Amino acid sequence: MKATQTSIPEVLIIEPKVFGDERGFFYESFNQKAFNEATGTNHQFVQDNHSRSAKGVLRGLHYQVEQPQGKLVRVVRGAVFDVAVDIRKGSATFGQWVGVELSEDNHRQLWVPPGFAHGFLVLSESTDFLYKTTDYYNAAHERCIAWDDPTIAIDWPGNKKGALIPNLSIKDGKGKNLIGLDMPVEIVQK
């Protein structure tokens, strides 16, 4: 397993060793010991999630104000543009974002630590998206940042001159701008 820092050092691209030939491929998609060694963390995962989405669906940008979740995300069918936004108060990279294409072909995973909002845009006709979380989902504490918040200014694929009209859930369509939102107090940096 190889971990590569992004422009926000705590957000990591994880690349497993893939063994393949004309018959197909094999890789170990998760190993707790290898993950901890590659990332220099000691996070334990408590929940696995699977979502299927059609092309143009945009999910997020989600976070929890209590029980903040770290997420290890990957695609097993299709492709997405995956985004992590730093929402840690006091962080040198507060409000900055990282975007990475994850696909069934590149086998990449993205480590999104607690203290980051997360979302993705589906690029393929359909995508199966899997992710592990470091804490349990809690609907009462979930919040959503608007996908098109101008203070974050995510460069979503297909959004040249505001042309992207993503397929949003009702909840995600009510996302708020970053400034003034509830932030996860457990991860406030000094």
Please tell me about this protein's structure.
With 190 residues, the protein is mostly beta strands. The chain has a single domain (44-187), classed as Jelly Rolls. It is 6% helix and 39% strand. It is built from two helices and 13 strands; from the N terminus they run ββββαβββββββββα. It has helices at 32-39, 170-173, and strands at residues 2-5, 12-15, 18-21, 24-27, 47-54, 58-64, 71-77, 79-86, 97-103, 109-112, 116-122, 126-133, 142-144. The strands form three sheets. It has a six-stranded antiparallel beta sheet, with no helix packed on it. A five-stranded antiparallel beta sheet has the order 9-8-11-6-13, with no helix packed on it. A hairpin with a 2-residue loop joins strand 3 (18-21) and strand 4. The longest helix is centred in the first third of the chain and has 8 residues, at 32-39. It starts with a strand and ends in a 17-residue tail after the last helix. The model has no long low-confidence stretch (mean pLDDT 93).
